[in-house]
Amino acid sequence: MALKLMNQKGQEFSAFKLLISAIVAVAILAILIPIIMPPDFGEDPNVKVKQLIGQAVANPSAIQLDEVTFKEGKSISAASIISNSGLSADQVCMGITKFENRDFRLIGGASTESGYYRIIYDGGSDKKVKIIVICDTDAESLVNDLMDYGHDDKINTSDCDICEGQGTCCAVMLDYR
Asked: Which of 117, 114, 118, 152 is CA-nearest to residue 132?
């Protein structure tokens, strides 16, 4: 005959055992679910662009493409993407496709106090965009690359005052057509 645990009133502890089992199961799930399926905080577009800038500087005249998902309020800042790259703000020009969607705004440049460009996403839902980065040895070569690749409509290099005639020049564009 099996020994059964009884409380003072002579009742079994089965409900108590069930409650303890449920608490243990929930605790185990709370530990395992984040490990199995980590939460999606979204990728930082600046990190992706910084990687592409590094590749583009190492391979002048070659186009670098990747996709990134923007979440509401995310932005790409020239200050972020040039840090530790050896480039300065006047060596990076930024642009977005000429499209009717107003979810992205390009602000900054030489006319602002910081001199840095920034692309800000104001949309309400996540948006996947193509990032295009091209760097070359000087401004004239970069403009030629943009025309060769058919991206001269996405960026207005005359607004950028990039490179001031010398040094590596980069163009960072978002294409979300």
From this structure: 152
Radius of gyration of the chain (CA): 27
Phi first, then psi, for residue 61 (nearest 5°) are 75, -5
Asked if residues 118 and 34 have their Cβ atoms less than 8 Å apart, the reply is no
Question: How far is Cα 88 from Cα 84, in angstroms, rounded to an integer?
Answer: 10
Strands 117-121 and 104-108: antiparallel
3-class SS of residue 10? coil
Give the global pTM.
0.68
User: Secondary structure of the chain: what % helix, strand, coil (to 5)?
Assistant: 35, 25, 40
| Beta carbons within 8 Å of 98's beta carbon, 6+ residues apart | 153, 154
pLDDT digits (tens, 9 = 90+) for 106-138: 777 655 555 577 888 887 788 888 888 898 888
Percentage of the chain modeled with pLDDT above 70: 72
